[in-house]
Amino acid sequence: MLIIGPPGSGKGTQAERISERLGVVAISTGDIFRANVKGETPLGIEAKKYMDAGDFVPDSVTNNMVRDRLSQSDVENGFLLDGYPRTTAQVDYLDQILAEGEQELDVVLQLTADDEELVARLLGRAKETGRSDDNETVIRHRLDLYHEQTEAVVAKYAERGILTQVDGIGGIDEVTDRVLTAIESAKAV
Ligand code: AMP
């Protein structure tokens, strides 16, 4: 499965909940990058400059990282990718990895929310977590990139008939209920 959504849509939170409920491992590229930044690894040092500016980390770094992660044994019974792919080039790369492993995506879930709601949420989160990419200029840039690049990813999966959209506005539990219902009905198709 994939979970796709604009910054601030709660995809990380929902991904963790789906992972617990369905017993599939959740893999967040943003979390992997942040762990590397914290550990000051070469990957983290490289990624940080892009993340702080709200830019995408280059595919040369991101794709290999995802390939490595998906080669680990805990993904054998399925996985939920959060935050990847974000560009159509990443879709092509993921297609290759999956084809090599004779795997297929079952469901692509998109969380939707209005931009102004997202900016307000993210500014709130900035106060709580102090994430270095949660200031208004960077937030708006991340949203622009989502519209410019990631919506094309969503369109690709819609064409393939595996896209399910869920309204991300509401309480966390309410959205989780919607998400789980949407996954159940998507799997039943
Ligand atoms: P997230 O936690 O998903 O919002 O990701 C935080 C940041 O990590 C993004 O703003 C990007 O700088 C970087 N990042 C995460 N996933 C990707 C990806 N698939 N491609 C490029 N950069 C990414």
From TrEMBL:
It is found in: Cytoplasm. AMP binds at residues 29, 34, 55-57, 83-86, 90, 131, 142. It catalyses: AMP + ATP = 2 ADP. Keywords: ATP-binding, Cytoplasm, Kinase, Nucleotide biosynthesis, Nucleotide-binding, Transferase. Its EC number is 2.7.4.3. ATP binds at residues 8-13, 125, 170. It is an enzyme of class 2 (transferase). PANTHER family: NUCLEOTIDE KINASE (PTHR23359). Belongs to the adenylate kinase family. This is Adenylate kinase. It comes from Paenarthrobacter aurescens. The lineage of its organism: Bacteria, Bacillati, Actinomycetota, Actinomycetes, Micrococcales. The gene is adk_2.
